[in-house]
Amino acid sequence: MRVVIVFESLFGNTRQVAEAIADGVRESRPDAEIDCLRVEDANPERVGVADLLVVGGPTHMRGMTSGFSRKMGLQAEQKESEGDQEKSRPEPEEGAEGPGVRDWFHGLSKTRNGARAAAFDTRADFRLAGGAAHAIARRLRGHGYQLAAEPEGFIIEDTEGPLREGELDRAKAWGAALD
Fold it and tell me: What is the pTM of this model?
């Protein structure tokens, strides 16, 4: 089985979840070949070979990120870190300014019959926070993928994280259940 996990991550939380999902798949399917790729590295050739495609990203403005929302998030983080030198803030990940999952879908080809997919996001835990996973799942279905699991959200504690305690274990278990 060939598994490709594609993710967008600004501050490392979604990357950590993607890696935990890969660990879960690895535990349940030791024979699986797994690629865990940032969106900018997930070209059609690498994605097209997947028997299972897992796609995830952070939630911005109650849904999938856009170029505008990523830029706003990175600018807000920079202003906050300049104004609050005492509080330790996560650094943006390399490539955070680049394309996101929404943009990546424009280059994704329709799948061959039988390919499966799953969607996840990272999100805040407050009323009306929204989530990106359902929109990612809709786009996957629109590209011909069959969903292998219900879309899943993993909780972050603050705008930039960290992940809530236990979320990486939950992500690993979710990955192990993808079959």
Answer: 0.90
